[in-house]
């Protein structure tokens, strides 16, 4: 050791080493426990500290023993430090940065004077099972125990005031994922890429090379260079494949992927997984094996080779393998004195290590004592088989090798190479890796070809056939290694949990003979290292105590995640879709209190729900009921479908008529209700509850597709194609008539439960329903959604003199409760059959069949179940809580209150409740137990309606008034248009143009016509695009094959007539059921344009958008940020990448905002309607 | 995460689908006995091994599809029913 080369600042820094990763020209200053130190760029925090002469970094968990370097890797249990406001930083991995404030954790008041270390004095006090035994009783002392125990928790401090960080997740797709960038992993990656596979190579450390970096740094650099230059290999360093799940779905954790982003998860789907995780050196058990200065041979070599740091001054080396022998040479080359080489293969052994704070003396089993500050051990390896275990493999312990080996490949698509399967020289490792790489590539490419062929958008690559199947991979030699676990003394087994070999022996003696039980009892392998260092030693100690073999003792299951992952990365960005009506911005700006109802954001009230109720009863109110589900049904067999799904009869519903219907599931439980109207000969619109819309649609499709594929019916959801407004109150006829043209609104012509179509406030194709939920004369107006705001504002201005009042969901709930209308899901639950919901009148058991009939026949015969009744508390001022219990006089529970409110109309409390039959007779006075325990009385009413049971309020004889003149309505896009605006074909659009390389534009004004027909009929033959394709049709139309037997025809704004013309021409003599539904107002349509569009989508969409899977002209439907979205690749002129995305209009705002947010790191910019005015034409 | 082989769309993540349980045909209402209905509605065999299941590709083609899934390994292949 030539001390002249050691500076005062970095006394342990060695002269330049071949392959070192530090940049000596760039000195970094940092603070260590308040002291100013310096290191070099490329140093880890620990290597910089070690260069500065620091040997002690932390205190242990239970005994608060001083700890130094063990492995000098990310997993080193002794090198977890606090860095600024971040606790538990893996400091032997984290790179040094200028100005870092580094402190030790788990120490008080200081690293070297730690009061908690007194626990060491009462060593037996913390015997295994200590926590269970000591703190069990008495229970009342738990709070005190907790305070004591909390002192022992090892962890840093979390700065509560620290600003939140940004985390995101991404989807990734590759053919071959290689976990581990050592020689075998790199060889596998190179070979796989050469075979034509897309490869992702993931290396935990900051450089490729693995152990070659210190064994043969030139060789490592050369191989790494080949990998970096190879085509088709995506290299991620400082990243870990932390988990593998079904279908080769892997969690790749990227650390510090971007400034300000601490970690990111890549949810990676790979064809083949190659596990090349290498080996972790195993500590040796002897007294003092955790003293600072005792370290693994690989740690010493890392420090010297990568960071040019002397791990000590005078060394003893315990070696049992060639790596240990090489460490001796390495230390000597670095100028470190090797005082003694103890060769375990010839009987040498270390008995104990001694030292006050750090290592001072090594005692051998032959009694020799050697003064030394460094003891290097090389006694064997642990195979980190985690990913193989997660793939279903069960690696076996091989005594000859003294480690677990994975002999068989666990399953097609999962491979392993390198130290996990055997030993070998560099050449052997390379050959094995390459052979496995080719095998993995061929499997993945076969899988990929099959996927492309099975995918309607896929275009098979025209490239040559894959190379002929490679021969079997020649196995790596099984290593020969002595089984060395423990010396003649006891020492630490689990360094992060402070579990010693003595603890394990005593646990076994206490009767915990199974390794799984010992693990839970002693917490061995349950600390941050999760078995990486201690697993095999623990098994060996247990085995020797029980007298079994290690193989018999078993292995511990490796579970995800393999490395520690921040909770932020696991949580990622939260995609929680919300839906808005067109009117929600109006509601928000008029004082509406938002109510979250399922995915919908709705107005609960506008400040005074009681006033809103009174306005409806006395004058007229309007409510936004857009979320009500609507299904467009077409075809000759719609009545069959309605008869099958509703419990009541549907055969003779005349055109222009509306009927209320109830649906039950097959178990007879009420599932949804709503009204259905017949608009034309073979055209119906079904309405559903807001929350049931999706389920009813699926239920309808299930019946049509699986049970009655012979029925000729097409279903199209049109829930948000319309803005739905209920106009209710005595003046509603007068108000609606002022807006409506083409419909006679007189009571005689347009009676209750009738439907008409006409023009409302200048908006054509509006549907008017005379129905209501409030008991008042009322109309439900469905207007094409883009005109929703226009019509809402027209109602407000036309009804000013009538005192028109917007009302929210709360007022509507009071009104319907006054009228006694049930709400499915509120007044019924998952067990309420139709006869328990007061629906006896609706159920028609004389129908031959309907969903739920057998169960309802049974319920009818048994007379079983509760009854729905109206209840009025005797004390009119008491409003029982919803879910309050209804009691028999004996106190037995006999039902519950399902809805309750104070009625402003009756000035008393009113309820609906489900009660047993014995309590359901009108006039019964029953007990209601309130939440506070008080019991009040209530009277069962003769009918469900509290207000106007005779229904006279519907017979309102106001006459219609003459319609006013309305200006041309303005159609609005699905998101607010930014900046200056203009009008295109009656649509208000933004003229703002962004020059950003990636832009998002609202192109909702495009005409969107849905076409349905048989997937394999004559229409399908004639349509210009097959399922999965988007094809131009002339230069004004784009036909998208959006589903089997389902198309979307897109046209420039205002070109609806042209599109319908073209369609009618090819559909006219098709002689099969074809349906054409205009969804222009029902879908939000966006254009995402720019080369990095696919990268943005990878944050929100799991589909592989590679050119062979989703080429230009491809169309598919999938999940985008949690919203079912149609994705069309329609590249621009000149080949610039472009996607059109469309979803339900009510999800448009959410999708738009989410795409802008997810694209921030790609610089996405919002832009107006395309300046060229054309989206379809290229 | 599993992928399911949709006969229309190709392999897709299982989260795009809704599970509709093992394939079991609905009895005809009239001749069916109470016991048959009881079996159809409430009794499931839940075997360990291959089961033909119905899935609804709700976030894709919106077709009901038939898939044979091994409940032990999660290995899937197209089912026999349409
Ligand atoms: Zn599908």
Automatic annotation (TrEMBL), chain A:
The keyword Calcium does not apply. GO terms for molecular function: oxidoreductase activity. Signal peptide: none annotated. It comes from the Bacteria. InterPro entries: 2Fe-2S-bd_N, BFD-like_2Fe2S-bd_dom_sf, FAD/NAD-bd_sf, GcvT/YgfZ/DmdA, GcvT/YgfZ_C, GcvT_C, GCVT_N, SoxA_A3. Residues 1-20, 451-474, 948-981 are annotated as: Disordered. Residues 1-12, 451-462 have a biased composition (Low complexity). Pfam families: FAD_oxidored, Fer2_4, GCV_T, GCV_T_C, SO_alpha_A3. Keywords: Oxidoreductase. Residues 492-573 form the SoxA A3 domain. Residues 584-847 form the GCVT N-terminal domain. Residues 867-941 form the Aminomethyltransferase C-terminal domain. Belongs to the GcvT family. This is FAD-dependent oxidoreductase. It comes from Nesterenkonia sphaerica.
UniProtKB/TrEMBL annotation, chain B:
It holds the Pfam family SoxD. It comes from the Bacteria. GO terms for molecular function: sarcosine oxidase activity. GO terms for biological process: tetrahydrofolate metabolic process. This is Sarcosine oxidase subunit delta.
